[in-house]
Design brief:
about 15% strand; 7 helices; two-stranded antiparallel sheet; alpha/beta; six-stranded mixed sheet; Rossmann fold
């Protein structure tokens, strides 16, 4: 028997504008996480190109990709990915260590970020001492540590209850509006539609359709 080629993504051609809030939606196996990882330089395409600021990141070497991920992109994961033995402050400072930020500046910036996400009184708490929503807030602060132009959030509300998930969605939207950060989420959460500028629907690795929030609202009204 010959080999059967499975295409995780097939003919995907999208452009995300600076400062946009875009949600990638679709059923499990649709290619959301693969597309998310391609945009973030976590995976390389076998064919095609991925551009950030007119640079094809699929052609960058390991060192150049590491620099890009450290300086230009912040990541938020469904499982938080915090280091349990470090405090909230230390977790947020970690990306700044890799970026060579001086210690005093790291402490100052991490403190300000945690205060911004409502955790000014939890600086020295470790992840096991925090609720799921608080851990995700730490993860958001960490994603912003090096003042990235892009924040990628993979199922950021997936492990949270309804109320806490809504708080995280609104927090991301506020950061998007106030700081002009481009936010791209891979999500099943329909509440994300309410804050997204555009929604990209994937199915079987292909873009099914792209809609604005207003277009989705009209569909629901009909």
């Amino acid at each position: 028997m010959g080999k059967y080629v499975i295409k995780a993504l097939d003919g995907v051609n999208i452009k995300i504008r600076r400062g946009e809030y875009v949600s990638i939606m679709g059923p499990s196996g649709s290619g959301k996480t693969t597309l998310f990882n391609m945009i973030g330089g976590l995976d390389r395409p076998t064919r095609g190109k991925v551009y950030i600021d007119e640079v094809d990141i699929s052609k960058l070497d390991a060192y150049e990709l590491a620099w890009l991920r450290c300086r230009k992109i912040g990541y938020i994961f469904q499982t938080f990915n915090l280091i349990p033995v470090l405090t909230a402050l230390e977790n947020v400072m970690l990306p700044m260590i890799f970026a060579g930020v001086p210690r005093e500046e790291r402490i100052k910036r991490a403190t300000e970020l945690l205060e911004r996400v409502g955790l000014g009184d939890r600086l020295h708490h470790k992840p096991p001492e925090l609720s799921g929503g608080q851990q995700q807030r730490v993860a958001i602060a960490r994603a912003l540590a090096n003042d990235p132009a892009i924040v990628l959030a993979d199922e950021p509300t997936g492990n949270l209850d309804l109320h806490t998930g809504l708080e995280i969605i609104n927090l991301l939207r506020t950061l998007n509006k106030e700081k002009g950060v481009t936010i791209v989420t891979a999500t099943h959460d329909l509440k994300m539609i309410d804050v997204s500028d555009r929604i990209i629907y994937l199915r079987d690795g292909k873009v099914q359709r792209i809609e604005t929030r207003a277009e989705v609202a009209v569909e629901y009204e009909e």
